[in-house]
Amino acid sequence: MAHYRASESKREQFRRYLEKAGVLDSLTSVLVALYEETEKPNNALDFLKQHLGVAGQGSAGTEALQQELRDMRQRCELLAEENKDLKNRLQRYEPTQEDGAAE
Prior knowledge:
Helices cover 81% and strands 0% of the residues. By secondary structure, the chain is an all-alpha fold. The protein folds into 2 domains: 1-57, no CATH class; 59-92. Helix 2 crosses helix 3. The longest helix is centred in the C-terminal third of the chain and has 34 residues, at 60-93. The mean pLDDT is 84. Belongs to the AMY1 family. Keywords: Coiled coil, Nucleus. Its main location: nucleus. It is found in: Nucleus. InterPro entries: AMY1.
C-alpha cells in the first residue's frame, strides 16, 4: 500500500510540474483545436506538432536565423582576410618588438 501512495505522490508532483510549466494548458488548447476541426487531418500527430510550434517554427523563423548565420560567417571570413592583409601591410612599415630588439 505504501508503494502505491509513493507513486501517486510522484504522479501528483509531475502533474503540478507540467501545470506550472504551461504544458497542460498548451496540450489542452491544441487538443481542443483538433476536436473542433470540422475536417479532421489525416495525420493527427502532424497537426499537434504544427500547432505546438514544433514543425511550424522550423519554416520562417529558423530559415531567417540560418540565413543570418550564413551571412555572419561570410562576413567573419571577409573580416579575417582583411585583418590578415592589414597585419601583413603593418609588418612592412613597423617591425615587431623582436625585430627591433635584434637590430
